[in-house]
Amino acid sequence: VAELPEPLEPAGSKEEESLASLKSFARIAWEECRAPLTDNAGPAQVRWEIYSTWTLLLCIHHAEAEAERCRRHFEPRPWRTEGQALQHIFLKHRSVRVLAAVLRWLRWAYCWTSVPSEEREGLNGGLASYERTRRAMQLQSALAKPLTAAAVMHPDGPLQEPSRFVGADMEDERALLRQLWTCLRCGELHGALALCASSGQAWRTALLQGMLPVSDSVEEEALGYDAMDEDGDEALLGRVREAHTDWTEFGTLEGSACSNGNPWRRLWKEQCWDIAQRNLRTNSTMDVHELAMYGFCSGNLEA
Question: Residue 229 pLDDT more than 50?
Answer without folding.
Answer: no
